[in-house]
Amino acid sequence: MEIILEKNKKRTGPVIFSKYNMGEGIKKALELGRENLLFEIKGAGLKGRGGAGFPTATKWMLSAAANAEKKFVVCNADEGEPGTFKDRVLLLEYPELVFEGMVIAGYIIGAKTGIVYLRGEYEYLLEALEEFLMKMREEKLLGKNILGKEAFDFDISIRLGSGAYVCGEETALIESLEGNRGEPRNRPPYPVNTGYLGYPTIVNNVETLASVPHIVTKGGEWFKKYGTDKSTGSKLFSVSGDCAKPGVYELPWGTKIKELLELVGAKNTKAVQVGGASGICIPKTQFDRAFAYEDAATGGSIMVFNEGRDMLKVLKNFLEFFVEESCGQCTPCRVGNTKLLEGVEKIERGEYTFAYISNLKELGHTMQVASKCGLGQSSPNSFISILENFKDEIFRTNGKGRNNGKA
Amino acid sequence: MVKRENTRTPVSQQPHIVDKPADTATIGGTISVEINEKKVTVPLGTTILEACRQNQIHIPTLCHHPDLCIAGVCRICVVDVEGMRTLQTACSFPITSPIKIRTSTPMVRKARRHIIDLLLSEHYGECYSCFRNGNCELQSLAKEYGVDSYTFGHVEKPRYEVDNSSASVIRDMSKCILCKRCVRTCIDLQEVGVLEAINRGHETHIGTFLDKPLADVICINCGQCINRCPTAALRANDPSDEIWAAIDDPQKHVVIQTAPSPRAAIGEEFGVEPGHSFTGELNTALKRIGFDKVFDTNFTADLTIIEEGTELLNRLKKAIVEKDESVKLPQFTSCSPGWVKFIEHFYPEYLDYLSTAKSPQQMFGAITKTFYAKEAGVDPADIVTVALMPCAAKKFECNRPEMNDSGFKDVDYGLTTREMAKMIKEAGIHLPEMPKSNFDDPFGEASGAGLIFGATGGVMEAALRTVYELVTGREVPFKNLVIEPCRGFEGIKQASVKLENCVEEYKFLEGVEVKFAVAHGTANAKKVMEMLRKGELVGYHFVEIMACPGGCLGGGGQPIPTSADIRKKRAEAIYAEEESLPIRKSHENPHVHYIYEKFLTEGPCSKLSHKLLHTHYTKRGKFIS
Amino acid sequence: MLVLEKNALSEEIEQLVAKYGSDRSALIQILQAIQRKHKFISDFAQQEVARLLSIHPVEVYSVITFYSFLCSEPKGRNIVRLCKTISCDMAGKDAVEAAVKRELGISFGETTKDKRITLEYTNCLGMCDQGPAMLVNERVYTHLDPEKAVNILNEIK
C-alpha cells in the first residue's frame, strides 16, 4: 500500500510559488553578507507566518547581537492548528526553500546548528526530507564551509514531535526539544537570548523561512510590492470545509475574504473561521474584510462553513480540542477551557442563563490576557466570536434547549 | 543571562538571574520604575513581585514559594505592565527597563477573581471539614477577593481517590490546585523525584511513577511537600484519634516524648511569631490533656551521642590500631528517618557507612517499654508510646517492622507539631497561657547537646563536645562550647578539629585531625554521597545528614508556612534555650549515667545496647516493580 | 518479564542512549524509538531510560503521559488514529467512525482481542483538504469513506 497523498495541483502565487533554483539563495546570501541580508529582510517587512506576526528581522537581529558560544536556528514545523496544512505542502514540494531559509538564518545570526521540529503526525515526510538533506550536503549547501565559504558551517537535523499541539508554541517546542513536557516558559527571558539549552535560539515558521530565499534573491523591494503597507508579501492559505476546491493557495496579503471564497468555489457560505480553532469566526456580513495582520490576521487556516452547518457544534469541536491540547500548567487555560466547553454543553441542553453566558464571555477575556502562552490567550477567540456573531442561530430556541431537551 | 542549575528545571522556571553589577549604586545597577504611579528604584533584575513587596504593595501569590524556583503557573499574581498586550505575572517578570506597573486595575482584579473562581470550581470539598481550614492559601484568597458564590460551579464528587497508602503522607488530589510546589519541592529542593505532573490539559494531575500509591514508590516521607502545599491536598497521616482513644482508656499508660523542634515551633500554631520555645508550657498542656508521663526526647538524644560517639571511636580504633580495612569511614548519622530511607533507596551500597545507632525517638520507645516499665512497675503491654516530632518520616520509622526490640512496638505513634497543636486546641487549651512545668522522671533532665539536635549541625556539635572531651579530657576548644563551624544554614559545611594530648585510652588518636561534614536537605545529601563515591571524603571521619532543609526545625511535620527566615528564627530559639541550660554535654547528663549503671550495665555499644538501641537497614534500591 | 527479555531491552536502550546521547534532551527521541518498536514503553523500559539519563522515573512517565503518541500501556500491533477535528468531521468522519467500530467490534480507545488494532482519535492531522483522514501507524490515509476505511483496516496485519 502506498501513501495516498494528493500531489501538487498546479500551484501558483506571486512569491513563495514563484520560480526558484535550488542553491541560489545561499549563494546570494554569502555574496551580500550579514548586514545587507538583514537590511533586505527588514526592508521586505517580513513578519512571522505562524500567526503572531513578529517582525523576522528584529528577531534575527536580537539573536545576532547576543553573545554566546552556540546559537540555534529552529524551524517550527509542528503545524497543528486545525485547518492548516500549508507547511506539509512546503516540506513535501519545496523543501529547498525551507532548508535554505534556515541556512541563511544561521549565517545571519551566527549559528551552526539547525533543527526542524516536525510534528509526529508528519512522520511520513521524514524519509524524503532526510534524503533531501543528504542531497544538500552533497551539493555543499550544508555541512562544513558551505559553498566554499571559509568557516561557514551549518547543518540541519530533524526531530519529531509526539502529538502535542501546544509544542507549536515556540517555548513549548524548545522544552520538548530539551526532553521535557511541552509546557511553555515564562517570558522574559525570550528564546532569542535564552532558548534551546539556554542558548540564543530563533524559532521560525516553515513559511517564514521559505520566504527568505526569495527575498534574498529577488530583494526586499520586490517582496514589498505584494500585500499591504503593514502586511507585505503573500500568504499561503490552507482552505478546507465547504468549498469545491480545498487546498493551499498563495495570495497577496490584503485579499478579501469574499475574493478567496470565490476562488475556492464556496457557495452558500455562512461563516469563515480565520486562523483555525484559535482564530475568529467571521460571519457573512463581514466578508468584505481583508486578510492582513491589521485586519483578519491568520496563520493561514481558513475553514468554510455553509448555511447547513451548526455553529454551536463547530464551537464545541474547537473547545474539546483545547481542553485536550492545553498543556495544563496554567489555571486560566486548563480550567477556563473546560468551563467554556461546559457552557456550550449547557447551551445545547438549554440549561443556561444569559447572566451565566455573560460570565463565561468575561472569563474568555480574562483567559486572553492572563494565560501563560498563546494557546490559552487565543483559545477563547472562537467562543467569543461565535457566540457574538451567531447569537440568533444559537439562542433562538423554544426554551427547552436546542435539541428539544435531548442532550 | 539565566543560570542553568540542573537539567530538569526548565530555564524559565529557575530563578531569573540578571547579571547585576556588584555595586548597585553605580549607574545601571539600579532602575527606576513606576508602581501605581509611585516612582521606586530597585536593583536591575528584581522581579515585579519583589519590587512590590519592598514597597508595601500586596500581590497575591499561590504557586510562588520563597524556597522554590519560579513557576508562573497559577497566574494569580498578574499585574498590568504598560505597553504590553497581556497581563504579566509579577513573580516571574524581571525588571530590566523603566516600566510602568499597575497592580490593581479593573482588568487585574477581574482576572484574579476569575482565577480564584476557576480553582474553586475544581477544588473538591468544603472548608469546614478540612484540616487546613483557617490556614489555607486558597481559602484566604477567596476571602480576600470576596468570593461569595461559585460562579463557574463546584465539583460535587471527588475526581481522584485519596491515597492513604503511606504511613507518613496522605495525598488527596481532588483538593490539588496544580501549583506544582510539591513537584518543585520533591524534584528540585529535595531531589527525591517522586512527584511530577501527569497527563496534560484538563487531565493533568500530580502523580507518582505509573500513578502508583505513594507507599510503593521511592518516597522518603520527608513531608517537605506538605509544608509547601497551599491547600489540604497533602497532609500527614494523623493518628490523633487513636491517641485520644488511648488517653481515654484507663487501662493504658500513655507516655509522650517531645522533641526540641516542635517545642520551638508549636507557638506558631497559636499565633505566636516564629522564634519562641514553649517547652515548659507544653509539659503542662500535655499533662492536662491526659498524658500519663511527659518525657524529653533530648534524653535519648544524649544516649544517641554516647552510643554513636562510642561507635565512631570503635571504628576509628579498628581502622587506626587494628588496620582493619573493612571499616567504613566516615560514619554517617542515622537519626533522620527521611535520610535513612533516602540512602536505602538511592545509595544502598553505602549502608555500612551509617551509624547503627537508632534515632532518639526509637531509643526512647525501646527504653520506655523495658527499663521504664520495670522502674515504674507498669506492664509494657499497657504502655502506649507517643512521639511528638517535627517530622512526617518518623511515622514511617516507628512502623518499620524491625522497630520492636522491646518485645512490643517500640513507638506506637509519631505525632507532628501540627497534629499536637490540634489536639491541644481540641482540649480547650491555649498553649502560650500555660504555666511552665518540668519533664517527668526518671528522664527528667537532658543536656543542651540533645536540644540542638533540632538544627542542622546540632548532632555534630553535640557529638564533638562529647567525643573531644572523652578523647582529650578537655572541653572542645570553642568559646562557650559553641562550635561555630557546625552552625548556620549553608548547604554543606566542612571543618576539622585536631586531637592533641589525648588521654591514655585514646593515645592512638594523638594528632589526628577529625574531619567532619554537615549537610541538610537531601539535595545536599546527594552531593555528599557523590563526593563519597568519587573518593573526595577520604580522611573524613563523621558526617551529619538531615533530610530536611534547616534540619529537624524545618521538618515536614512543622507548622505551615515555612521559609528560610522562619527556619532561622526557630534555630535562634533552640540555640537560646540551650545556652540557658545547666548541662550542655551529653556525657554529663546524670540520667544517662543512671541508665548505664542500672540497666545498660555493660556500657555503650554492648550486647544489650545493641539489642535495644541499635538497628539495621534495608537495601531498598530505586527499582519500582 | 523474563530476565532474558529484560536484558535484551536494557541492551537495546543502552544502544539508543549511545546513539542519541545521555543528555535529557535525548529523552523524547529515545522514547520514540522504543515506542516505534514495542508499541508501548514498559515500566521497566521507563526506569532503564531514567537510570541511563540520570533522571527520575516519574519524569519519564510524566513526559510519556504528556504526549499523545507515547504510551506506557501495551496496545495493539497497529495504532489507527482517526482525525476528529472539524474539517474531517464535516467531510464525513462520523460515517467512517461508525463503520470502523462496527467492523472491528471495538470502540475508540480499545484494542481488538487479537491485538491487531488499537483505535484512537487524534486531533488535526493536517489533511483538512483531503478529509476524512486517518493515520495507520505513521502512514496517512485520506479521502476516506466507510468502505475504503474498512478495506484499509482489513489489509493490515
Which keywords apply here?
heterotrimer; B: 625 residues; Ubiquitin-like (UB roll); five-stranded mixed sheet; C: alpha+beta; Arc Repressor Mutant, subunit A; 2 domains; four-stranded mixed sheet; 7 helices; 4 strands; elongated
Task: Tell me what the structure shows.
The complex is a heterotrimer of chains A (407), B (625) and C (157). By secondary structure, chain A is α/β, with parallel strands linked by helices. Chain A folds into 3 domains: 24-221, 3-Layer(aba) Sandwich (Rossmann fold), CATH 3.40.50.11540; 234-306, Roll (Ubiquitin-like (UB roll)), CATH 3.10.20; 311-393, NADH-ubiquinone oxidoreductase 51kDa subunit, iron-sulphur binding domain (de novo design (two linked rop proteins)). Chain A is built from 16 helices and 9 strands. Chain A has helices at 24-32, 34-44, 56-65, 86-93, 95-109, 126-138, 170-177, 206-218, 220-224, 257-263, 311-325, 331-349, 354-370, 374-378, 380-389, 391-395; strands at 72-77, 113-118, 155-160, 201-205, 234-241, 247-252, 269-274, 280-283, 301-306. Chain A has a 5-stranded mixed sheet. In chain A, strands 3-2-1-4 form a 4-stranded parallel sheet, sandwiched between helices. Chain A is globular, with a radius of gyration of 22 Å. The two termini of chain A are 41 Å apart. The model of chain A is unreliable at 1-5 (pLDDT under 50). With 625 residues, chain B is an alpha/beta fold. Among the domains of chain B are: 11-104, Ubiquitin-like (UB roll); 116-236, 2-Layer Sandwich (Alpha-Beta Plaits); 240-298 and 361-428, Rossmann fold, CATH 3.40.50.1780. Helices cover 32% and strands 12% of the residues of chain B. Chain B has 19 helices and 17 strands. Chain B has helices at residues 48-54, 106-122, 137-144, 181-189, 224-228, 240-248, 260-265, 279-289, 297-320, 337-346, 360-376, 393-398, 417-426, 448-451, 458-472, 522-533, 564-579, 590-598, 607-613; strands at 30-35, 38-43, 78-81, 88-89, 100-102, 169-171, 196-198, 205-207, 234-236, 253-258, 293-296, 331-332, 383-389, 413-416, 492-498, 513-520, 542-546. In chain B, helix 16 links the parallel strand 16 and strand 17. In chain B, helix 9 (297-320) crosses helix 11 (360-376) and helix 9 (297-320) crosses helix 15. Mean pLDDT of chain B is 94; it is low at 1-8. Chain C is of the alpha+beta class and 157 residues long. Chain C has 2 domains: 3-66, Arc Repressor Mutant, subunit A (Orthogonal Bundle); 78-155, 3-Layer(aba) Sandwich (Glutaredoxin), CATH 3.40.30.10. Chain C is 50% helix and 11% strand. Chain C contains 7 helices and 4 strands, in the order ααααβααβββα. Chain C has helices spanning 3-20, 27-38, 43-53, 57-66, 86-90, 93-104, 146-155; strands at 78-83, 117-122, 134-136, 139-141. A 4-stranded mixed sheet of chain C has the order 2-1-3-4, covered by helices on one side. In chain C, a hairpin with a 2-residue loop joins strand 3 (134-136) and strand 4. The model of chain C has no long low-confidence stretch (mean pLDDT 95). Classes of the chains: A alpha/beta (407), B alpha/beta (625), C alpha+beta (157). Chains A and C meet through strand 5, strand 9 and helix 11 of A and helix 2, helix 4, helix 5 and strand 4 of C.
